[in-house]
Amino acid sequence: MTELPQKLDLRSHDIAEDKRQELLRLFPEIRTECDKLDFDRLKLALGEAVDVGKERYGMNWPGKADSYKAIQTPTLGTLLPCVGESVNFDTTRNLVLEGDNLEVMKLLQKSYLGKIKMIYIDPPYNTGNDFVYPDDFAESLQTYLKYTGQVDAEGAKFGTNTEADGRFHSKWLNMMYPRLYLARNLLREDGVIFITIDNQEEENLKKLCHEVFGEENFVASIVWQKKVSPANDAQWFSSDHDYVLVYARNKQVWRPFKLERTEEQLEYYKNPDNDPRGPWNSATYTCNKSKDERPNLYYPIPNPATGEQVWPKDTAVWKYGRDVTDRYIAENKLYWGADGLAKFPRMKLFLSEMDKVVPRSIWGYEDVGHTQEATTELKELFGAIVFESPKPTRLIQRMIELSCNDDGIVLDFFAGSGTTAQAVLEMNARDHGRRQFILIQLPEKTERTDFSTIAEITKERVRRVIKNLNQEQAGKLKLGDAPEQDRGFRVFKLAESNLAPWNADVPHDASALGRQLELHVSHVRDGRTDQDILYEVLLKSGYPLATPVETFELAGKPVHSVAGGQLLICLDRTLTLELIRAIAERKPERIVCLDEGFAGNDQLKTNAAHIFEPTDRREAKSDARRFRTV
Fold it and tell me: Which of 6, 256, 347, 462 is 20 to 30 A from 159 in CA distance terms?
């Protein structure tokens, strides 16, 4: 007889199993009889590449092992859709996710693995008592639910960090490490992360990122001049800058886009000799190597005005070899001054050939904004200062300009007031881009009466930015092929799974086991809707939360079609054989039904499994069975 359908795995992505399978793919010889990994065999396979010594360079701190456990522990949470708090829920691809970012990013691992183009975060700077997070990694979802009043012990507090704590830096590292690890998984191969930080934890953060992203993927430590005026009440120095650490997912693949030249930079380009190729600037034609170091670059160049053979000075050589120099002479790219009598030639750099410039590692407030500008931006939106220490929109727009040409997903998992969403929306309006944003923000409590949590500020800021952009666009003619702007966002909130799992740890008495058996038959939590379950199935089947969903009727029952019919979901509580056959005729890649819909009819469930069974046995082996229940 055909087996019963498998249950859909409601856990988040198993990262440790991913690593294990990758090792087995590369080194199949390390598999043991018990399906474990033999590390002695792995050492043999890797030979001298394995460091078995006790003393080695690396970063360690108290609690690091627990951070690993936090990464490897799957979550049974879900994200509940909140249509009433969203804008254009049915059509938008933008997301605002409310919850502890560690748990939320675990839930995104299946759906967004390797799909994020750029991540920007402005994490807590660890200046003392300025961040909250679950102290108990093993129960981080339960801690969050208590904190938000979703379960008993409403008002339970997350941990805080003060300078008086003996593990001040360690607690901050324990908070950051698993989040950065999960973030790396989400980045595309050509993705990049930007992190703003001050000097309190810059050194530790850099070492941490070296470990997570790889020292070889470190791109830059940018200095951002964040203040216009010095703080004259400073005891030692006025702290006028922050850092922006930049790490690529793969530095060999990622390159920053070049920037448009500023008006000031364009002023350096002139055309004193009326060259038909247009304005140009010049650069030195020597480099600081000696003739002993680079003898092939030490040779004479003839001055066309005097015929003199000009050699580089003794402490330098020419920048290029003879073949390149001969080409530049033929192309009139060497400049000997207005009178042709310069001591050494310079190379012409034509604006037409290099109209953009590489980004520099110092960002002035004139170009990317400052903290006072950021506060003013927020005050103009809200009419009051509702959030401390926001970042200027122009700062994040510079990062987007360098990494997201006109599309791609931008993630910010310390969203704060929502500056990243404003940066994306305004840039899309300016250049007709199709970039998307995902914001994650903890509903950290405030002392305000209008916005009780920071997450409420986040959502309201994005709403007001959208409203302003729509008002600006009203009455303007749409350009020919310009795409329709995505001016909306879907709100989801972290919660326990919609489906109560079987608990093998309950007391073994008749009443407790009876309650568990009832859950096995009808295990949907009270108050949860079909829409709630639908998005959990999407998320845990590996589909992004912005995936288009169409609902239609088959055999008189509502059926949800995901991604153009790739996945069909039916959550009706009274399934019929007619419906099962109608779904099968659509030939979806996967089907998910509510286990409760079979109402204990194992014969119907078996028939369904048989109908949905792949006709190609090779297909069946590749993905177990395509029919699952929840």
Answer: 462
Amino acid at 220: A
Has residue 96 been placed in a domain? Answer: yes
591: enclosing H helix or E strand: strand 590-593
Give the pLDDT band of residue 558 (cuts 50, 70, 90). Answer: very high
Are residue 544 and residue 591 in the same domain, yes or no?
yes
114 Cβ partners below 8 Å, 6+ apart? 185, 186, 187, 188, 189
CA distance 455 to 444: 7
Residue-by-residue DSSP string for 31-59: B-TTS-B-HHHHHHHHGGG----S-----
User: CA 367, CA 30: separation in Å to the nearest integer?
Assistant: 54
Output the CA torsion 244→248→253→258 (10° steps).
Answer: -10
Contacts of 286 (CB under 8 A, 6+ apart): 312, 313, 316, 317, 318, 319, 344
For residues 118 and 200, membership in a common domain is answered with yes
Q: How far apart are CA 258 and CA 260, in angstroms?
A: 7
pLDDT in tens, 416-457: 999 999 999 999 999 999 999 999 999 999 999 999 999 999
Q: What is the pLDDT of residue 165?
A: 59
| Closest by CA position to 434, among listed 397, 470, 405 | 405
Q: Which domain holds residue 321?
A: 265-352
List all residues 6 or more positions away from 550 whose beta carbon is below 8 Å from its beta carbon.
560, 561
Pairing of strands 362-363, 95-98: unpaired
d(CA 133, CA 137): 9
Mark residue 44 as left, alpha or beta (left: phi above 0; alpha: psi -120 to 50; beta: remaining).
alpha
Contact 386, 457 (CB under 8 A): yes
Strands 346-350 and 280-284, sheet pairing: antiparallel
Residue 166 DSSP code: T
Place of tokens 């709630």: 532
Rounded (10°) angle between helices 64-72 and 15-26: 90
Q: Residue 624 has what pLDDT?
A: 42
Higher pLDDT, 600 or 86: 86
DSSP tally for the chain: helices H, then strands E: 19, 25
Does residue 59 contact residue 211 with C-beta atoms inside 8 Å?
Answer: yes
Assess if residue 578 is contained within a domain.
Answer: yes
The pTM of this model reads 0.85
